[in-house]
Amino acid sequence: MFEDVTDRLREANKGQLPFEDQLKSLGSLQERLLENKKMGQDLLFMYTYMAAITTASVTRPEIFGYTAERFEYVPTRYIAKVERLVKGWGYSYADGLRVIAEKCRNETLQSMLNRYANSIDSGVPDDDFIGTELSTVREIYRNTFEQGVEMLKKWGDAYLAMLLSGTLVAIIIMISVAIYAPDGIESALNTSYMIIVAISGFGLAIMYKAVPDDQKTHGLADVCSREQATIRRMERMVLPVVAAICLILIIIGVNAGVIFLLVGLLIMPLGIIGYIDDDNVVNRDEDFSTFIRSLGSVMGGKGITTADALQEIDKKSLTNLEPFINSVTSKLNLGIDEGGSWKRFIGETGSNLIYKYMNIFRDAVSLGGSADRIGKIVGSSMLEQVLLRRKRDMLVKGFVVLLIPMHGAMVGIFVFLFEILLTMSKAVTAVLETFNEATSALSGSSSSISGSMAGAMNFFTDFPEAEMSTYVVTICVLLTISNTLAGKIVAGGDRYMYYFFGSLLCTITGIIFVIAPILVGIFFNIPTFGAV
User: Fold this and answer.
1) Domain spans of the chain?
2) Which of 9, 92, 191, 236 is the least crowded, having the fewest Cβ atoms under 10 Å away?
3) d(CA 306, CA 313)
4) What pLDDT, in 10s, does the model give residues 77-122?
C-alpha cells in the first residue's frame, strides 16, 4: 500500500518525493555532526589498536585489514574504503589514502590520512609512524577535550543567565496581565513561550556542541551491569505507568503540583540506580588502567597465559574491579571459553572504555604481540581519558550544584508571584464590590470620591485565572524539560541520567507548586472591608 503511494507521489513530483532533497541534506548534516563529535575519541581508540597490533610485527596489509574490521570506531570506515581501493581497484596504499582524504570532511582525519600517505612514500616503517601518531592523537585529544571543558564552563553559566532572563520576561508579562487585564493575551503568552524555547534550544545546542564526547556505558544488549539490567527491567513497567497516570490526572484536572511530584517520585528509583551505576563505571575505569598494565607486565615478564597472570596480579589494590577479576579468573580456571568469559567481564562492568580497550588488548595479544608493550600502550591511552574525565567531573559538580538551586529559584519566583497576584486580584475584587455597594448609599461629593477610589483600584481586577494558570504550568514544564536536558548534556552518561535529573527537578517543581498556595495564604492575607 505504502509503496503505491510513494510511486504516485514520485510520479506527481517528477520522480522525487516532497522535501526529499531537504530531508537528505538534514540527514547528511546530522550524520556529519555526530561523526565529528565522535571522531576525536575514536581516533584515539583506532591508533591505540593499530599501535598494539604492530607489536606483533604484522605487515601493512594486515594492519589495514584488521583495523578495517573494527567498525565500532568511526575513522575505521575510511580505512575500510582505503582497503577496498587497494584490493579491489589496484591502488597503492599511499594513493588510496590520498583519494579517501580528499573526500573526508573531518579536518583531523583528513590530515592524518595525508600524513600516513606521505610516510609511506618516504619509506617510514609503519610501527614508527603509528607510534608517533598515537602520541600526536593523544595531544590533540587532550587539547580538544580541555578546550571543550572551558567552553562548556562558560556556556553553562551563560545558559543559566539567559534562561533566568527569559523567566523574568515571562514574569513581567504575567504582572502586566494582572495589572491591566488586556484582551487578546494569547499573543503575549505565545511570545513568552517562544522566548523560553528559543533560549533553551540555543543554549542546549551550544553546550552539546562544546561538551567533549565521553560515552561511559558500552550499551551491549545481551550483557550489562547489574544496575543497568535493573533499570532496563524497571523502565518497561515504570514509564508506561507514569504516562498513564499523568494522562488520567490531567484529564480529571488534578493540581499540576501533584502531577509533577508524582512523576518525580515514580522515576526517582530509576534515577538513583542510574546515578549509582554511573559512579561505579567511573570508578571501574580508573582501576582498569592499573589492571591492564599489571596484566600485561605479568604476562610479558613471566611468559605465562592470561589465566595464570590473573592469579599473580594484586587484586586488593583494585577494589572496584576485584569482584569482576575474581569472576573471570574462576571461569578461566574451570576451562570455560576464554572469549565468553572476557565478554562477560566486559559486559558486567558496564563500561565503554573497558569494552574498547579490553578488546584491543586481547586482539593484539592473540596476534602474537608483546603483552608487556600492549599493556603499556592500552593503559596509557586509558589513563589519558580517565584523567580528562576527572577534570570534566569537577565542572559537572559545579554546574549541577548551580543548576538545581537556580531551577528552584526560577520556578519558585514564578509560582509564588502568580499566587500573590491571584490573591491580590481576589482581594481587590472583593474591595471593589464593597465600594460599589457603598456608592449607592452615598451622594454628592462623597459619591465622586468613592468613584475615584474604585477607578484607582480597578488595576488588579479581571485577572484571567484559568489562562494564567495554564501559562504558569506550561512555563514550568518548559523550564523543567530544558534543565533536565542541560544536566544530562553536561554530566554525560547513559540515558538513565535523564531519569536522575528529571526526577530531581520534577520533585522540586512539584513541592513548590504544592506549598506555594499554602505559604501565600499564610503570609499574604490581604484584609478586606466589611462595610464603609
Assistant:
1) 1-124, 282-386
2) 236
3) 11
4) 999 999 999 998 989 999 999 999 998 888 889 999 999 999 999 9
Q: Are 296 and 375 in contact (CB under 8 A)?
A: yes
Residue 312 to residue 371: CA distance in whole angstroms: 15
Q: Which residues contact 42 (CB under 8 A, 6 or more apart)?
A: 73, 74, 75, 76
Note the pLDDT tens digit of each residue in 230-244. 999 999 999 999 999
CA–CA dist 361, 288 (Å, integer): 12
> What is the Cα–Cα distance from 488 to 214, expressed in whole angstroms?
12
CA 122, 125, 129: angle at the middle one, nearest 5? 85
30 exposure class (CB count in 10 Å sphere: 0-12, 13-18, 19+): exposed
Element (H, E) at 250: helix 226-252
Residue-wise pLDDT for 384-397, tens only, equals 999 999 989 888 88
Alpha helix locations (H) across 253-351? Answer: 256-302, 306-312, 322-333, 338-349
Closest CA to 105 of 29, 192, 174: 29
| Separation CA 335–CA 49 (nearest Å) | 28
Alpha carbon distance 213, 154 (integer Å): 17
Predicted confidence at residue 513, as pLDDT, reads 94
Place of cell 538534514: 26
CA dist., res. 374 & res. 296, Å (int): 7
Q: Which three cell numbers stand for residue 434?
A: 464593597
Burial zone of 358 (CB within 10 Å; 0-12 exposed, 13-18 middle, 19+ buried): buried
Determine the Cα–Cα distance for residues 40 and 94; give it in Å rounded to an integer: 23
Written as nine digits, the cell of 513 is: 507548586
Angle subtended by helix axes 371-439 and 444-456, to nearest 10? 170
What's residue 213's pLDDT?
A: 84
Nearest to 362 by CA among 375, 344, 353: 375
> Is residue 369 pLDDT above 70, yes or no?
yes
Find where cell 578495517 sits: 68
Q: Is 303 helix (H, G, I), strand (E, B) or coil?
A: coil
Distance from the first to the final alpha carbon of the chain? 77
Q: Which tens digits make up the pLDDT trace of 391-424?
A: 898 888 889 999 999 999 999 999 999 988 888 8
Cell of 211: 561538551
Residue type, 62: E
Nearby residues of 285 by Cβ (< 8 Å), 6 or more positions away = 216, 351, 353, 354, 382, 385, 386, 389
The pLDDT of residue 108: 87
